[in-house]
User: Fold this.
Amino acid sequence: MKSEFFVVGIILIMVGIGVSFYGYKQMQPTGLEKTIDTIAKWGEALSGEKSPLPKRDKTGSVLIMILGGIFFIVGLNMIIKSGGNRESRENIISSQMQDYPRYCPNCGVHVSDGNQFCSKCGAKIES
Ligand SMILES: [Zn+2]
Assistant:
């Protein structure tokens, strides 16, 4: 279950990176547009008039990038969750394996695990 989450998370991150990269590329002006922009600026500088440039619609590209970002975040979240579950489960197991520190009821000396009698005074240790 947790490994499936991990795999799905990886896939989502890869898709997210791909989608947002695609959106980023869409947003970048092409070489032709850069040339037109430069010519228009030269024209503005020479004539002193502002040439109305058609505004490039970037809404779609931004939406694609946001979508990619969402994919990325969801995928990352799934990987963190799958890792977090495993970690907490291991912690529970290790805490169950570990006995509480025991002390002699008679003299208060720490008694190592598995010992039934105090190493110092020989009193019986209640587990
Ligand atoms: Zn003792």
